[in-house]
Amino acid sequence: MSCCRTSDVKSVKTTDAQAPSIYDFEVLGSDKKPYDLKQHKGKPLVIYNVASKCGYTDGGYKTAQELYSKYKDQGFTVLAFPCNQFASQEPGTEEEIKEFACKKFSAEFPIMAKVDVNGDKASPLYEYLKTKVPGILGTTSVKWNFTSFLVDENGVAIERYSPGAKAEEIEKKLVPLLERTAAL
Length: 184
What we know:
By secondary structure, the chain is an alpha+beta fold. It is 28% helix and 18% strand.
């Protein structure tokens, strides 16, 4: 799957906070065909909210691609959800966002459709992620672009990373997950 697929997110089955895993959410392509999150069952992944005009853009996309390139052969993936909620730093269309990520950062991982990560229109997937792994002092809102969530092989969000998190920081929890899933 390349970054040239866009998706929307909608809730299925349960309420956001009660969802037992990301597999309880449906991600739809812009063609309205489902992108089944269950295809990642049994393997960890990282979910980012991304933006093209942010101070974290360069490092964030490079970290995401570095992790993806290094671990994709073990079934790992990155899902990137563009978000324009923070200082309007993702103003482009989905096509512009895909082109930017693919050309500037050689992004090979799926780039989804734009979503809100906070507020009344926040995507149900993000409501689940924020509730499952609160931020500093228990706050649930996403503070800025390139906040990321590590999801285990069962589809459960287990860690939240601040914008600017380096691959090495994420690998501290990711590598043991990959080792555990390889042993299954």
